[in-house]
Write a structure and sequence with these properties.
- The chain has 185 residues and is an alpha+beta fold.
- The chain has two domains: 36 residues; 133 residues, no CATH class.
- It is built from one helix and eleven strands, in the order H-E-E-E-E-E-E-E-E-E-E-E.
- The chain has a six-stranded antiparallel beta sheet with strand order 2-1-11-10-9-6, with no helix packed on it. A five-stranded antiparallel beta sheet has the order 3-4-5-7-8, with no helix packed on it.
- Strand 4 and strand 5 form a beta hairpin.
């Protein structure tokens, strides 16, 4: 091999190495900037009446979804002579399922104290339905809801929840974790 051919090979190798380095650098920068869509995310835990609700249902994000058939969120204040309560309904109209949570206390809902959802004075359920069946997961085996805000002046309720439940009519179980809500009522 001549000396000129050897110099041309070295120059070609330098050029190829520089090209490979530049390509690798460009690809790594573009990969760092790529947006990865991991699907829906839980709303942040807030206390401003942002009309949010979400949880992990058997490890997957569950959010209420409204469409022309219905769905969505509703929080209703319940009052009696010496008792206050709140009923929260969250429905996913696309997947035909939802949650209901109701807590009553006297004289008012307590902030920062976990309410044991196995107590028969409280009610929580997850449900799903199709044309043939409706499954109610309302046999609570463990669970708590903790209110972080319950303000009758501004009409805002916020808190966190989790529970495990089984359905007697469908012979199945659900695990609900990382629940949060921030709703006007």
């Amino acid at each position: 091999m001549s000396k000129a051919t050897l110099v041309n090979c070295k120059e070609t190798m330098k050029l190829m190495t520089t090209f490979l380095f530049a390509t690798t650098l460009a690809l790594s920068i573009s990969c760092d900037q790529a947006v990865v869509d991991n699907g829906p995310e839980l709303p942040p835990i807030t206390m401003e009446g942002n009309n949010t609700f979400g949880c992990l249902l058997n490890g997957k994000v569950w959010l209420p979804i409204t469409n022309l058939d219905g769905g969505g969120l509703l929080a209703e204040l319940q009052t009696a002579i010496d008792t206050l309560g709140i009923t929260i309904s969250a429905d996913n109209a696309r997947d035909d399922n939802g949650f209901t949570l109701a807590v009553y206390d006297s004289p008012i809902i307590k902030i920062g104290e976990p309410y044991d959802l196995t107590n028969p004075d409280f009610f929580v359920q997850f449900f799903w339905y199709d044309e043939a069946t409706t499954c109610y997961f309302d046999e609570i085996t463990s669970g708590v809801v903790t209110f972080t805000r319950f303000d009758t002046t501004t009409g805002i309720v916020a808190g966190t929840f989790e529970f495990r439940a089984r359905s007697l009519n469908c012979n199945d179980r659900v695990v609900v974790t990382d629940g949060r809500f921030d709703l006007p009522f």
